[in-house]
Amino acid sequence: MIIQKSTQPRIGSFDPESYSFGDHFIDHMIVCEYQDGKWGEVKLMPYGPLSFSPANMAFNYGQACFEGMKAYKDKDGEVYLFRPEKNFERINKSAARLAMPEIPKEVFIDGLKALVDVDRAWIPYGEGKSLYIRPLIFATEEALKARVSHKYMFAIVASPAKSYYTAPVSVKISDYYSRAASGGVGFAKAAGNYAASFYPTKLANQEGYEQVIWTDDTTHENFEESGTMNVFVRIGDTIYTPKTSEKILDGVTRDSFINLAKRRGIEVVIGDVKVKDVVDAYRNETLKEVWGVGTAVVTSVFEAIGYKDEKLILPKLEFEDSYALTLQRDLVAIQTNQAEDPFGWRVKVERHVLEGA
Amino acid sequence: MIIQKSTQPRIGSFDPESYSFGDHFIDHMIVCEYQDGKWGEVKLMPYGPLSFSPANMAFNYGQACFEGMKAYKDKDGEVYLFRPEKNFERINKSAARLAMPEIPKEVFIDGLKALVDVDRAWIPYGEGKSLYIRPLIFATEEALKARVSHKYMFAIVASPAKSYYTAPVSVKISDYYSRAASGGVGFAKAAGNYAASFYPTKLANQEGYEQVIWTDDTTHENFEESGTMNVFVRIGDTIYTPKTSEKILDGVTRDSFINLAKRRGIEVVIGDVKVKDVVDAYRNETLKEVWGVGTAVVTSVFEAIGYKDEKLILPKLEFEDSYALTLQRDLVAIQTNQAEDPFGWRVKVERHVLEGA
C-alpha cells in the first residue's frame, strides 16, 4: 500500500456535535487504478479532487457503481464495520453486470480498514452517529467510444453521518414510472439507477410524498423497492418483503432485518408483495406497518401510502408494538457493540493497521 | 463568452490521413457551469482535464447525458453542422428525465459554433471523414447524498472521426437482457443506458455477434434498438422501423432516413416491428435488409441475425439494390454539401464567429 498522509488535516475544524451528512469528508481516501488488464497498488492519500477530462467515459457512458456502508464507534472508542464482506461481494456483482473489472478482496477490505483506522478520529460517537463509507468503481478512460472502458478507478471516500431522517414519511406507489427493466441492472448499485429515479421522485414530491414505492415495470402490481431502500410490509403479525431478483437490490440491511425478525420468532414471507394485497389489508385494517430499510437511514417508517388518487393513512404504533422500530433497535445495538453479535456481523477495525503495511 | 485560447495547440501533430476515432481531441473545449439555480458564462478553453473528486455526484448517481453530432467539411473548406437543433432539443429532453437543468439554446448553439469554428483546422476532409462532437451535461456536486445534484457542468468536446465500421455485422436478438424499462429512461441519451448495455453486448460478442438487437423487456417480441442505433427492417420493398417511445431514442439519423426514404417514394411503416414477422419474412424469403442507423457510423448493415440458436443469413445486395446504402449515400451527400438540401438540414458554420463575441 502506498501511504501519503495529509499534511493539512481538517479534523481539527470538524465539530462532531454539529455537522450535516454527506458534506464533510474525512482527511483521506483510498484510490486504486486499473489499466492494462490489472489493478495497481492501493494508495491511501489526502481526500481531494483528481484530474478527469469531460471526455472521461464514466461521464459519458455511466460505467460506475458503488457501495454504501458504515463504521461505528462504541463507548470505548473501538471501531466496527458491519458485514463488509457483503458489500465486497455486491460491488463485484454490480461491476460484473456493468462489464467492469472486479475488485480483489484485499484491495477492498484492506483499503477499507486502513482508511477507517487512519481517520478513526472522524467517526462520531453517539446515538445514530457513524461514519458513512462510499466505495465506488468508475471508468476513467478518455475516449468517445460507446464501449467498455479500459481504465477504471476504485476509490473509497467517507463522511461522518447521522440518521438523517427519522420522522415518518409518505410514499407514492408508482403506477407509471419504474426503476428497473426485466433483464436490466436493477439489482446492481449502478450509478445510472439513481439518476433514473430522481425525476419520478420529484413528481412524487410535488404531490406531497417523500419517496416512490417502485413497482414492476410491466404491470405495476408488485412492490419492488421504496426510494433507494428495500421495502417491508407487515400484515397482521407477518412481515412480507419482495424476493431479491435481477430487478431488486440484495440489501445488507434487508438481509439483517430478515434474520433479526426470525430470531424474534416473527414470521417472514419472502416473495411477491402485491399492491392489491397491501391495499386489501389496508381496507380490512390488517395492514399494520410498511417501512423501508437501507444502510444510510437504517429504517424509514411510512405514515401514509399514496395509491392512485387515494392516500392510505397507516396506523401510528407505539415503539414496542412496531416491528420496524424494534428490529431497527436490535440491528443498531449489534452494529454499535451494545449487544451480543450471535451472527458474527461485526468486524473490529484494529488500531495501527498501517504499521508495517 | 470567456475565451481562453490554447497556448500549446496540438493541431500541428495531427495527421488527418492517419488517426483513430475518439482518441484524439481537438485543441479546445466548451465548458459552462451551473450553480445557484442558473447557468454561468460559456467558456471556450484548451481541451484537458479538470478537477473532480471521487465523491462527485456524476460518478456516484449517474446524472449525466450527452449528444452525438458531427461537423463536415466540404471541398471548399466550408464547415457544416447537421440539424443541430435536434440535438439541442434532445439533450434537454434527456436532462429533464434525469432531473437535470435544461441548457439554454444560446449556450448550446453558440458554444458549438464557436468551438467548431476555432478548431476548424481539425476537421478532416474526405469520404466518411468528419468531426465527431460530444456535448454533455453531468452532475458536479461533491456530496454523498442520493438526490439531484445542485451543480452541473455542460461541456462540448470533439474528436476527428471516420466511419469507423462499415463492414456488415452480425447481430443477436435479445431474448433475455434488455436496455429499457417501461416508465424508464430508454428514450434519453442517459449515460447509464450505455453502461447497462455493455455486458449483454459482451455475451453476444462471445457468441460471434457484434451487437445486440434490443427487444422489449416484457415479452422480447418487439424490436426496439440495435446496439446504440435505431433499427430498420426491409421486407419486400417496404421499410419498417419501431415507433419512438419512452423506451426508444428519437434518433436524428433515424428521422433523416425516414424523410429520405419517403422522398424516394419508398413506403415506410412506423410501428411495432415484431421479431416473429421478421423471422417469418426470413423464412419466406421476403426479408431483404436489416440495418442500424446512428450519427457515429451512419449505417451499419447486418449480414446475419441471431435468433435463439439459429443464425439467419441475410441476402447480400448490390449497392444499387440496397435501401440502406442508397439512403446512406443520400444522407451523406446532404451532410457534406455534395447535394441540394431541400430539407434545410445543413447549418453552415461561419468563420471568425468569436470576433466581437
UniProtKB/TrEMBL annotation, chains A, B:
Modified residue annotations for N6-(pyridoxal phosphate)lysine: K189
EC numbers: 2.6.1.42
Pathway: Amino-acid biosynthesis; L-isoleucine biosynthesis; L-isoleucine from 2-oxobutanoate: step 4/4; Amino-acid biosynthesis; L-valine biosynthesis; L-valine from pyruvate: step 4/4; Amino-acid biosynthesis; L-leucine biosynthesis; L-leucine from 3-methyl-2-oxobutanoate: step 4/4
A molecular function GO annotation: branched-chain-amino-acid transaminase activity
Coiled coil stretches, renumbered: none
Catalytic activity: L-valine + 2-oxoglutarate = 3-methyl-2-oxobutanoate + L-glutamate; L-isoleucine + 2-oxoglutarate = (S)-3-methyl-2-oxopentanoate + L-glutamate; L-leucine + 2-oxoglutarate = 4-methyl-2-oxopentanoate + L-glutamate
Tree of life domain: Bacteria
Keywords for the protein's UniProt record, in alphabetical order: Amino-acid biosynthesis, Aminotransferase, Branched-chain amino acid biosynthesis, Pyridoxal phosphate, Transferase
GO BP annotation list: amino acid biosynthetic process; branched-chain amino acid biosynthetic process
PROSITE patterns linked: AA_TRANSFER_CLASS_4
Top-tier EC class: transferase
One Pfam entry name: Aminotran_4
CC cofactor: pyridoxal 5'-phosphate
Keyword check for Protein transport: no
InterPro entries the record matches: Aminotrans_IV, Aminotrans_IV_CS, Aminotransferase-like, B_amino_transII, BCAT-like_C, BCAT-like_N, BCAT_family
PANTHER family for this protein: BRANCHED-CHAIN-AMINO-ACID AMINOTRANSFERASE, SUBGROUP IIII AMINOTRANSFERASE
Protein family (similarity comment): Belongs to the class-IV pyridoxal-phosphate-dependent aminotransferase family.
Protein name (record): Branched-chain-amino-acid aminotransferase
Originating organism: Planobacterium oryzisoli
Phylogenetic lineage: Bacteria, Pseudomonadati, Bacteroidota, Flavobacteriia, Flavobacteriales
